[in-house]
Predict the 3D structure of the following.
Amino acid sequence: MAQLSDDAFAFGGELMRVEEALALVGERLPVVAGVETVPLWQADGRVLAEDVRALISLPPFDNSAVDGYAARTQDLAAEGATRLPVRGRVAAGHATADLAAGCAARVFTGAPVPPGTDIVFMQEDVTLEGDAVLLPPGLKKGANLRRAGEDVAAGAIVLPAGRRLRPQDVALAAAVGCADLPVRERLRVGLFSTGDELREPGEPLGPAQIYDSNRALLAALLGRMGVEVNDLGRLPDTRVAVEGALRSAAGSHDLLVTSGGVSTGEEDHVRAAVEAAGSLVFWRLAIKPGRPVALGVVGGTPLVGLPGNPVAVFVTGAHVLRPLVARLRGETLEPLPAFPVRCSFSYKKKSGRREYVRVSLRREPDGSLLALKHAQDGAGVLSSLTETTGLVELAEDRLGVQDGNIAPFIPYGLLW
Ligand code: AMP
Ligand code: MG
């Protein structure tokens, strides 16, 4: 496990823009995950550690895209149909033989076509006449033929280092002959909640107590990111307890994640604990919901202190924690696709701050998508997340939206 110096983020700051914070993450934090080789079948969701090159061309040989008849265009009549004797039959998985001039070969999908043939007629389009076939006019050279290397050339990079592998990536690696792949080791993430008010679901609830939902949320989100989650439980609201817990967890994890206790109240101890045990980088982000977010290093281990309100945890989980995890494991994150939708609400916001609005979508008769804002937009209202489809993103320079304006929408399903 790479040890970071505790002053890797040696400066503080006022309200910081999300991109600035993420740039800082990229500059100051190294990739800490080691490299291991895994069988292809275990590679889905893992981060590629090296470029993957094709061991062969794809397809490896010229082959037919259909069940039909292969011929040479030079044997076809200039006008009208052509009658050619059928010689030879090639099924998928079987080698082809040479084809005599002026003849056609029966071929099946995926079968190699005889050398020199440059067109394949679909069986549905031809007429069989004894041992000959009548080929219709009008088909172009190369039709229904898949040329060797048209998908991938041998030696080409098919998957770049940093790619988090998806099923289609695994399929391509298989198709070019890779039995196993070099991937980043799973990050080991230690997860805490903070707050005297928290109890475990299933326990009886005393006065002034609530159930801990952030740890369940974060464990699920981290699970979707494909990291190994170590549940370190709930911490009471004392600096000593928080500091002690962070210090003792630091050496054995790649990342520590906490929620709650990062605001400026006297009962918010995460910030002070991080400052005492290591160093703190930023704690007020220009993002809503979510403003208080701490990034620090304790005992050489990076730490992210997320806010306490569940919706703020969700939003900063997507826009801060997710990129941080990506950085630590050398993953290239593609920008989140945001789809234009029409807002059916008005919303005012401050300039200089990025804001996210929870919305449901409705399809209009003209096919366009209308975004409907949830009635409750408090950062503590969990049902506003379960009853909506995604987030409308209002960039820093916007002052809000007017009813009918177009704004970018990110479905929840794309966040992790
Ligand atoms: P804090 O930032 O610690 O002041 O917390 C802000 C709000 O989030 C408070 O209402 C807390 O009770 C609530 N909160 C903090 N942690 C959790 C948690 N783990 N689960 C549910 N709510 C929480
Ligand atoms: Mg608290």
Notes: Helices lie at 18-28, 167-175, 214-225, 239-250, 270-277, 310-328, 383-386.
